[in-house]
Automatic annotation (TrEMBL):
It comes from Natronosporangium hydrolyticum. One of its GO terms (cellular component) is ATP-binding cassette (ABC) transporter complex. Pfam families: ABC2_membrane. Its main location: membrane. Belongs to the ABC-2 integral membrane protein family. Keywords: Antibiotic resistance, Cell membrane, Membrane, Transmembrane, Transmembrane helix, Transport. It is a multi-pass membrane protein. One of its GO terms (biological process) is response to antibiotic. Residues 25-251 form the ABC transmembrane type-2 domain. This is Transport permease protein. GO terms for molecular function: ABC-type transporter activity. The chain crosses the membrane at residues 27-49, 61-81, 102-130, 136-158, 170-188, 225-244. InterPro entries: ABC2_TM, ABC2_TM_bact-type, ABC_2_transport, Nod_factor_ABC_transporter. It is found in: Cell membrane; Membrane.
Length: 253
């Protein structure tokens, strides 16, 4: 069964990735839009925000990376929804393939597509002045957190992909996720915010993840913040995975 799972998932992933590479609007939305946001913050708002000795490009980049992921996973929900509506899942059920491989193919595709988008955003950041003296271990930690966050949000995206009643509903869930970094430490220090907003910003998952990635890139001690960030990512992943598989079983039963 395990052998069938890996083989079936690989074949189905190849099919899904072909759809992504043939869709230019996906590439534009998930890579160019975050880069445009980065340019706007760097050259329009950056001069008005005091981030101490850290350059504003270095300060805001982690938030842009999370927005890139949140934007990218909306396409996972969209692709899953269109497969459900197109009857592809029913065809797969009549074939001798691992049922879980269908979901995992979309998840792996999301990881691949988001990694490409993140690399493009990093490239754009380098062009406008991002620099980091972080070592190999710090970069590996950053990559691990970004991949874990992508995996967690992808499983969140699977839920509306399976349960939405319309294509608009399948993709609309990502809007709050894209907006969440704006109410965090991603673009401005939280101590500049009013009391209730500051309390929310300091205790939501994006802030701990952004702070951890930023500290790793600028070679600052991460302290216990990295465990908070990992706890958020793993917690979201576990809950989303459970509800996604529950929704999947209900749809195919």
């Amino acid at each position: 069964m395990t052998t069938y799972f890996w083989g079936d998932t690989a074949v189905l992933t190849g099919r899904s990735i072909k759809h992504v590479t043939r869709s230019m609007d996906t590439i534009i939305t998930t890579a160019i839009t975050p880069i445009a946001l980065m340019l706007m913050f760097a050259f329009v708002f950056g001069g008005a925000i005091d981030t101490g000795t850290v350059s504003y490009v270095n300060y805001m980049l982690p938030g842009i990376l999370l927005i890139t992921i949140a934007s990218g996973i909306s396409y996972t929900a969209y692709r899953l929804f269109t497969d459900m509506q197109g009857g592809i899942f029913e065809r797969f059920q009549s074939m001798p393939i691992a049922r879980s491989g269908v979901l995992w193919a979309h998840v792996v595709t999301s990881l691949v597509a988001n990694v490409i988008s993140l690399v493009l955003v990093f490239g754009g950041a380098l062009l406008i002045g991002f620099r980091s003296g972080a070592g190999v271990l710090a970069w590996l930690a950053v990559a691990g957190i970004l991949i874990l966050f992508t995996l967690a949000l992808t499983w969140v995206a699977v839920i509306p992909g399976l349960t939405a009643k319309s294509v608009e509903g399948a993709g609309a869930f990502s809007y709050p996720l894209i907006f969440l970094p704006f109410i965090s430490s991603a673009f401005v220090p939280t101590d500049t915010m009013p009391g209730p907003v500051r309390a929310f910003a300091e205790h939501q998952p994006v802030t701990s993840i952004v702070n951890t990635i930023r500290d790793l890139l600028i070679q600052q001690p991460v302290g216990t913040g990295i465990w908070t960030a990992l706890a958020w990512c793993i917690g979201i992943l576990i809950v989303a995975y459970f509800f996604a598989n529950f929704s999947y079983r209900r749809r195919i039963s």
